[in-house]
Amino acid sequence: MEEKRTALVTGASRGIGRSIADNVASQCVTVILGCSGQTATAESVAEGIRAVGGEAEVCSFRVEDAEAAAAAIRDLQKKYGNIDILVNNAGINRDGLLLRMSEEEFESVLQVNLMGTFHCTKAVLRSMMRKRSGRIINISSVSGVMGNAGQTNYSASKAGIIGFTKAVAREVAGRGITVNAIAPGFIDTDMTKALPESVVTQVTEQIPMKHFGRPEDVAELAAFLASEEADISRGR
User: Fold this and answer.
1) Taking 50 as the threshold, does the pLDDT of residue 125 lie above it?
2) What pLDDT sits at residue 196?
3) pTM recorded for the entire structure
4) In sequence order, what are the residues at sequence separation of 6 or more whose Cβ sits closer than 8 angstroms to the Cβ of residue 212?
């Protein structure tokens, strides 16, 4: 009988994180929905997963708080034995031109997006290495690849995630752990709904298919990277 796996998806109450949680749960994986607020929204997602026979619970902590993240993940490991899959999806944006951007606006985005990824990854890694297996999926952005005007803080944080992912992947590949980053383009979420109409029009014109992607598009890729089919040890 296949061993039950456990996944932690941060920022799972809406958008891409919610779709990833739903998709991963369909693989007979117990899903922990990480959130820093919106606990009621996250609980409704968990209830939806349970309603179709899945297993899910909500865990509230701030990824940018190193001690809180480590304590929350330590408690989850005690309860479930291991975190087999980590999806670092939690992120924020505080857009604005660099000349008008405060140090706090720049740093707060790096703290959640980049440092949050660091804190959660570090917290799960030791047990994954002992087990010699694990899946870590980090959600970056096309803004981290190409840059985007008005998003120096966001672009820097997402570019940092790409470099972080490549480095950690080299460190742990020999232990059967995969570390991947997904860099979505513009996705139809609450974050992009807040963009001015003029920006949406400008961005859409740059997309060959002339429309934003869906959270489900990203979720399906994340689910594959989390699956047994993505096992790098196959054939050894």
Assistant:
1) yes
2) 60
3) 0.90
4) 185, 186, 187, 188, 192, 203, 204
pLDDT 10s digits, 30-64: 999 999 987 999 999 999 999 999 999 999 999 99
Catalytic positions are 154
Nearest 5°: the CA angle 141, 162, 207 is: 30
pLDDT at 207 over 60: no
Residue 131's Cα: distance from chain center in Å? 22
Reduced DSSP (H G I as helix, E B as strand, rest coil) percent helix, strand, coil of the chain, to 5: 55, 15, 30
The pairing of beta strand 56-60 with beta strand 85-88: unpaired
HSE of 89, CA atoms in CB hemisphere, 13 A: 27
Q: 37 exposed, middle or buried (CB, 10 Å; 0-12, 13-18, 19+)?
A: exposed
DSSP 3: P
